[in-house]
Amino acid sequence: MKKTIITRHKVGDFNTWIKGHQDRLDLFGPVMSDLKTFQDIDDPNSVVLVIEVTDMEKFEAILKDPTTNVLKAKHTVMDPITVSMPVKT
User: Fold this and answer.
1) Which element (helix H / strand E) includes 25?
2) 3-state secondary structure of 67
3) Which domain covers residue 49, as residue numbers?
4) What is the pTM (predicted TM-score) of this model?
5) C-alpha span between 15 and 32 (Å, rounded)
6) What does the pLDDT read at residue 30?
């Protein structure tokens, strides 16, 4: 079941991070159908991704996989990564 989620995190260097866009597509491509990237106006090193996830279980596994840390370091991703999901009202 497809879910729209939002992730937020800081990066050490936005220019380094944005150059890794294709790596993010390659990493999460098998579990998503769309990805939108945003940068905070007041903090250029704070980013938000809106992702259409097709398999939430596999998405979470990718985030927790220790090999993902290599890409996070390469692209200056800083923990924590906050993941938000829609609330049914």
Assistant:
1) helix 21-28
2) coil
3) 3-82
4) 0.91
5) 24
6) 97
